[in-house]
Write a structure and sequence with these properties.
The protein is α/β, with parallel strands linked by helices and about 475 residues long. It folds into 2 domains: about 325 residues, Trimethylamine methyltransferase-like (TIM Barrel); about 30 residues, no CATH class. It contains 18 helices and 22 strands. The strands form 5 sheets. The protein has a 9-stranded mixed β-sheet. It has a 4-stranded mixed β-sheet with strand order 3-4-2-13. The longest helix is centred in the middle third of the chain and has 22 residues. The mean pLDDT is about 95.
Length: about 475
């Protein structure tokens, strides 16, 4: 059983000619400009795969034909599984799913208008919350547990996810030992190494560095993850005017090259590795060149990135849904909605950061997860579009009711009223008088009540025997 992803693709910021021009420029960069590789292992692997290598400059260039051969080795679809099969998703084509994201350092509390350092308990509570939000399909570990030493972060972040949600868990890692320990943890929970590869309940993230550079440690991480057979995302984060040309097209070229380098490396290491093309591309505030998370340009770049991924027949990890707002205000809502909508309508397979993040991705907010879940419900309804057939056109009913009639009591109305119209769980649609009688609650206050209710009623954890085995074999977990 695979959760049905709605097919996007109705929004196309790039026409066919533009896609081919970007592709041609991407290939020219790979062949003529090259890529800086700071991992000895990765550099040797590229050289063995037919690349021209300057070891002194750590520069690698690859013929276009060979680049395309490697790209075409990667699977066009990837199944990411939940511990509960109802949460399985199939990334690829233009199917759209959403999830959390970030490695936020803070949690914002709207009751006090203050933020605090994120803790491991916050991560556990957010996992429980997301487990109960139906429009968030995947749990990407969203916060950094500030109280833990770095050598304990990887195992504790993934354990917090796997022990508190049945949705697929994705995350970045900080150490080689973390890759090994997290993989072993997932094997225990899945039942065996073979079963984990058949039904991957985790996936990992290993970034490249814009522009045109692969870090030594992260290059080694990509190699290690590819050898393990765990699904891996290779995102890049070029910023317009800073680490890419200021133009959106120029940013797309850098973004595509940077992520494709990770994709190609995985296929050299282990042909057929489940790998996801990834984008965290955005623009900068031209006043001071700081990173922006909520701009419309970020939505456009990531929507166009989805088109490029579809061109290369690769699953795509896009970025949308964030805001640069510091509080839960109108800016927080419209920025999150616009970027999510653009990515989803373009058919981005997995929109990460789609819920919970604010303040340049430094901060998460419990209430914002609930608000964004509502936004995402509306976004997915937009992706679904308008169904036109004999039933929905309703000519026979129109003829029956005739001029001046009404459709309130028709069986057709009862049949379609819920499937045709999104039913919000958070939005207020009462009259002013009824809203006042119920306490004049603002959106974030209603969201706070909903978040508290979901977390308090959550009762999932790993089976006792599995949990005990994980805690006995995997060292450093703070249970």
């Amino acid at each position: 059983m695979v959760r049905r992803g709605l097919a996007g693709g109705s929004f196309k910021p790039l026409n066919e000619d533009a896609i081919h021009k970007i592709h041609q420029t991407v290939m020219a960069v790979i062949e003529e400009v090259g890529f800086q590789i700071h991992s000895d292992t990765a550099l040797e692997l590229f050289e063995g795969a037919g690349a021209w290598v300057d070891k002194e400059k750590r520069l690698m260039r690859l013929p276009q034909e060979r680049a395309m051969e490697l790209i075409e080795m990667a699977p066009s679809e990837i199944r990411l599984c939940g511990q509960d099969e109802k949460h399985d998703i199939l990334l690829g084509a233009s199917r759209v799913y959403t999830g959390t994201g970030g490695t936020a350092l803070y949690v914002y509390h709207p009751q006090t208008s203050q933020k605090t350092l994120a803790t491991l308990d916050d991560l556990k509570h957010i996992a429980k919350l997301v487990d109960g939000l139906d429009n968030i399909h995947l749990f990407l570990l969203p916060t950094y547990p500030n109280e833990l030493p770095i050598e304990q972060v990887d195992v504790n972040r993934f354990f917090a996810g796997l022990d508190n949600t049945t949705k697929h868990v994705m995350g970045g890692l900080y150490t080689f030992d973390g890759i090994k320990q997290v993989t072993r943890m997932a094997e225990i929970i899945a039942g065996s190494g073979e079963r984990l590869r058949q039904r991957p309940i985790i996936s990992m993230i290993a970034c490249t560095i814009s522009p045109l550079k692969m870090d030594g440690e992260y290059g080694d991480f990509i190699v290690a993850i590819a050898r393990s057979g765990i699904p891996v995302v290779c995102p890049a984060e070029p910023l317009c005017g800073a680490t890419s040309p200021v133009t959106l097209a120029g940013n797309l070229v850098i973004q595509t090259v940077d992520s494709l380098m990770g994709v190609m490396l995985t296929q050299i290491v282990n042909p057929g590795t489940p790998v996801i093309l990834g984008s965290v591309s955005s623009n900068t505030d031209l006043r001071d060149l700081k990173y922006l998370a909520g701009s419309v340009e970020m939505g456009l770049i990531n929507a166009a990135g989805a088109q490029m991924a579809q061109f290369y027949k690769l699953p795509f990890y896009a970025t949308g849904g964030m805001t640069d707002a510091k509080v839960l205000d109108a800016q927080s809502g419209y920025e999150s909605a616009i970027t999510n909508m653009l990515c989803a309508l373009a058919g981005a397979n997995f929109i990460h950061d789609a819920a919970g993040l604010m303040e340049f991705a430094l901060t998460v907010c419990y209430e914002k997860y609930v608000i964004d879940n509502e936004i995402l419900g509306m976004v997915m309804r937009a992706v679904e579009g308008i169904k036109v057939n004999e039933d929905t056109l309703a000519f026979d009913l129109i003829k029956e009711v005739g001029p001046g009639g009404n459709f309130v009591t028709a069986k057709h109305t009862r049949r379609f009223m819920r499937s045709e119209h999104y039913q919000p769980l958070l939005s207020d649609r009462d009259s002013r008088e009824d809203w006042q009688a119920k306490g004049r609650k603002t959106t974030w206050k209603r969201a706070a009540e909903k978040a508290k209710e979901i977390v308090s009623k959550h009762n999932y954890s790993l089976p006792d025997a599995t949990r005990a085995q994980v805690l006995s074999e995997i060292h450093g977990i703070v249970a």
